[in-house]
Amino acid sequence: MPCFRCGARQTDPVRGASPWKRGVRADRQVLICPGCQSAHGAADDLDRCAACGSAALVCRLGEVECRDCGHTRDAAPSDLVPSGAPPGPPGGSGDGDLSAEVAAALNRVLRRGPAT
Prior knowledge:
Layout: E1 21-25, E2 28-32, H1 34-39, E3 57-60, E4 63-66, E5 72-74, H2 95-109
Antiparallel strand pairs: 1-2, 3-4, 4-5
């Protein structure tokens, strides 16, 4: 999953805690890269807990849970989220871009020519 602000993708982690942060935006789980955390406020564009106001939310199995106070609520169904709201990098990187990236990586690793 890329950073929702800049589209950077995570690389293989080193030992220890990841510098990437998780959050929820428009009832969907997102990641924030270290660069965007320092350039912007880490929680400026994230959803907040209705009970305590914290941005430490996690979305799983159709629920959004606050990691600070434990408050849970149902997440909006993905088909009801407005088309402009889902998180994504600027420029609209989608599944097609990921497929192209994976194909290019496989070609590099397997030393094949460009996919046709």
